[in-house]
Amino acid sequence: MIRIYNTLTRKKEEFKPLEEGKVKMYVCGLTVQDRPHIGHIRASITADILKRYFEYSGFDVTLITNFTDIDDKLIEKEKETGEDFRSIARRIIDEYFENADKLNIKRADFFPEATKHIQEIQELVSRLIEKGFAYVSGGNVYYDVSKFSGYGKLSGKKLEDLRVGARVEPDETKRNPVDFVVWKGAKPGEPWWESPWGRGRPGWHIECSAMSMHYLGETFDIHGGGADLMFPHHENEIAQSEGATGKPFARYWVHNGRLNLSGEKMSKSIGNVVLISDILKTYKPDVVRLYLLSTHYRSPLEYYEDRLKEQEGGYERLRQVLFLISQTEGEEGELNKETIDKFKEAMDDDFNTPKALSAIYSYTKDIFETMKKGPDTKWILSAKKTLKEMLSVLGLFESEEDHEKKDDDLIDLLLTIRSDIREKKLYELSDKIRDGLKKLNIEIEDTDEGSRWKRE
RNA sequence: GGCGGUAUAGCCAAGUGGCUAAGGCGACGGUCUGCAAAACCGUUAUUCACCGGUUCGAGUCCGGUUGCCGCCUCCA
After folding, report:
1. Could you tell me how many helices (H) and strands (E) chain A has, helices first?
2. Nucleotide nearest to A162 (CA to C1')
């Protein structure tokens, strides 16, 4: 039984799908105006873990992740750089995929883009106008927040408080300052689509309502995204969707905690972002994954490079144990039930990856200890199966080392020769090889079973 | 100002009333090894921000105080 924290009820709840054995899930992806950073990746990894664990638990998962490829910032960017907004969007989407693939993030089933769903968006806007939830004013269409009684149920905000705060853009054409735009009229020089309300573009929140319902139905299981999207984005999505359909929208809302940069909020507007492509220049994808999974997805996470570095120790330990058990060949072993149960218990409890990792590390210790005692092939084959299964649910250590095979063969050859030299006790020579390789960032380890090497 | 989150060792981080407070990183000492690395063994929180309360029993529940963070404006 999987329990999941639902922002809507502020409680952990047993997950019961709408349709037996299926999970329909929508996660807000990027607004593709700026290059993907580690915060985006935290959200993607969170979605990835949910998808993987649901699938592991026997569910058939449909995951939709959108790209918002038209918005004010993107238009601004186009004006600044002269580059067409479509081209900017394309470039950033490509960069996202390039990095997400390296990180072994499973692809969603669809990646809808706002500009390719203008029709669905306009249909939704029309529906809202017909039902009296939206009104046309000054070339824009606004959502009338006062018409939706459930407004604020996700974020816990009250309309009165929002009015008092009144940090909403003053706009004479709105009936109420908290009303938000669902269709925005185009100013001269801005991109536009033809609509019954004049030339314009979708508001920011509407595309997620339109696309999620288009792909998953009017009611679906899980809606996710970063905690910063809770308000206003997700609150507005609920208002739009439930206003239009009169049915419940997403049943479980899942929000991952923010990732802050060295104690400061990481944000495009401050400009203090850490690009994922920069991180991956220095750190292995699995190290980044370990870093993100070592904190529960809902907790806030401070980004310090040292903490990424810390994970290299754990990464190395897991790599060692995997190397060690890979030396034992044989038929597929049986799962170690006790360990798997511990792992599942952690994951069942709102995807508690730090706890799941601790089960993996404890088991790693068991493996080293057992192997120290002497060969127990059956046990080791079981450990191999068990460890790999757990790691693969977390998306770790799945990609084969993508280094050049030729180089590897060459190093292996050098090591074979070095073993002969060592047998003749010509240590000066063998150390020379070791030192030389070290300068090439290749480190040799001599063990009872022979020598092995790794890249630094 | 309103709303929400969080406070556990040098660092990260589990802990959802009850055996001696998981796990990782780091550090130190030891075993093994030609040396090194890895691994192994041991040490590293009498105590969970603080003050009260409930209870036979609280890091865990309740009230209060303080600190930090986020949202309320574009943001994963």
Report:
1. 15, 15
2. B72
Domain housing A415: 405-455
CA of A339 to C1' of B41 (A): 24
Distance A153 CA to B4 C1' (A): 13
How many domains does one find in chain A?
3
Residue A27 and residue A127 in one domain: yes
For the beta sheet containing A60-65, the strands, ordered from the edge strand earlier in sequence to the opposite edge, are A60-65, A22-27, A220-226, A250-256
- Retrieve residue A416's tokens: 């074979």
Residue corresponding to tokens 């802050």: A260
Nucleotide nearest to A265 (CA to C1'): B70
Q: What is the ipTM of this complex?
A: 0.92
Same domain, A340 and A387: yes
| A144 and A16 fall within a common domain | yes
Name the token pair of A22. 């299926």
Q: Are residues A210 and A342 in the same domain?
A: no
Domain boundary pick from A256, A287, A315 = A256
Burial of residue A58, with CB atoms counted within 10 A of its CB: 0-12 exposed, 13-18 middle, 19 or more buried: exposed
Residue A216 and residue A44 in contact, taking contact as beta carbons nearer than 8 Å: no
Average pLDDT score over residue span A233-257: 95
B23 C1' closest Cα residue:
A358
**Are A40 and A27 within 8 A, CB to CB?**
no
Q: Which residue has the higher pLDDT, A270 or A431?
A: A431
Using the structure, give the distance in angstroms from the CA atom of A138 to the C1' atom of B73, rounded to a whole number: 22
Q: Which residue has the higher pLDDT, A216 or A159?
A: A216
Return the SS3 of A222: strand
Please report, rounded to whole angstroms, the spatial distance between the CA atom of protein residue A299 and the C1' atom of nucleotide B53: 29
Mean pLDDT of chain A: 89
Q: What is the pLDDT of residues A258-282, one digit of tens each?
A: 888 765 555 555 556 889 999 999 8
Whether residue A399 is contained in a domain is answered as: no
The pLDDT tens digits of the residues spanning A51-80 come to 999 999 999 999 999 999 999 989 999 998
Assess if residue A270 is contained within a domain: no
Percent of chain A with pLDDT over 70: 94
Element at A386 (helix H, strand E)? helix A377-393
Q: Are residues A130 and A99 in the same domain?
A: yes
Instruction: Please name the nucleotide lying closest to A444, CA to C1'.
Output: B37
CA–C1' A325–B22 (A): 25
Query: pLDDT at position A406, please?
Result: 58
pLDDT band at A402 (very low <50, low <70, confident <90, very high): very low
Does residue A449 have a pLDDT over 90? Answer: no
pLDDT of residue A83: 93
